[in-house]
Specification:
Blueprint (H helix, E strand, L loop, with lengths): L6 E5 L4 H12 L3 E6 L2 H13 L3 E6 L5 H15 L4 E4 L14 H29 L2 E6 L2 H5 L5 H21 L4 E8 L5 H4 L3 H9 L9 H12 L10 E4 L6
Parallel strand pairs: 1-2, 1-4, 2-3, 4-5, 5-6, 6-7
Helix pairs in contact: 1-9, 3-4, 4-6
């Protein structure tokens, strides 16, 4: 098993890519800390992992709140004694064209997608530094690399995540902590399900593989970066988009 005995914290692990990642990591031997804002979804995810024979516990958190993140990190460290992997997966969208995007929409996405990644990494990185090894994986997006109409706030956060990833890779690398990002393309999740069918069809036609990505496609990328196989991978952005931007 590629993550045997490792403690992995996954934010937004209650559904979508986060849930698939939590299940994948548990099957590979990780003890999974399900960090989730939605208590019902978080408890259900942890229970599902345990029912499959894995080791998981739910830790409530609002990643946009520094105090909440600190409590989460302390609780996980107290329970497991160490933290080996952090997947900053939690994120939201509130789309609108620039002319119609409210300040509230801008602020909310920044709070969760950018501040949340900063808070979680700031709270958990010290445990990894103390151990002399750790893996931090941040979730960017194809939108953060190439932009997208109607997603000023989302694109800004996902581009910011790339900047933080490269900075932290330089700051933490010599302390034994690898920091990388994954930039998914269009994945079959609740976010994409809201897209009109006509638009969805056009999206798929732009992908050389002629399909949307599956949550497992992204979870497997996370798994690689979390494993010892990626010990010499640092500061990279792994694009999982089916060739969308070729």
């Amino acid at each position: 098993m590629r993550l045997q005995g490792k403690v992995a914290v996954i934010t937004g692990a209650g559904n979508g890519i986060g849930l698939e990642t939590a299940l994948t990591f548990a099957r590979e031997g990780a003890r999974v800390a399900v960090a989730e804002f939605d208590a019902e979804a978080g408890e259900a995810a942890a229970l599902r992992i345990r029912e499959e024979g894995g080791d998981a516990a739910f830790f409530p958190v609002d990643v946009s709140d520094w105090d909440s993140v600190q409590r989460m990190a302390a609780a996980i460290a107290e329970r497991y004694g160490r933290i080996d992997v952090l997947v900053n997966n939690a994120g939201i969208t509130q789309d609108a064209m620039l002319s119609k995007m409210s300040v509230e929409q801008w602020r909310k996405v920044i709070d969760v997608n950018l501040d949340g990644v900063f808070y979680c990494t700031k709270a958990i990185a010290p445990y990894m530094v103390q151990q002399g090894k750790g893996k931090i994986i941040n979730t960017s997006s194809v939108v953060g690399v190439h932009g997208n109409i109607g997603q000023t706030n989302y694109a800004a956060t996902k581009a910011g995540v790339i900047g933080m990833t490269k900075t932290w890779a330089k700051e933490l690398g010599f302390k034994g902590v690898n920091v990388n990002a994954v930039a998914p393309g269009y994945i079959e999740t609740g976010m994409v399900a809201k897209v009109p069918e006509k638009v969805l069809t056009a999206m798929i036609e732009r992908v050389p593989l002629r399909r949307l990505g599956r949550p497992a496609d992204v979870a497997n990328a996370y798994l690689y970066l979390a494993s010892d196989d990626a010990d010499y991978v640092n500061g990279t952005v792994l694009e999982v988009n089916g060739g969308l931007v070729i």
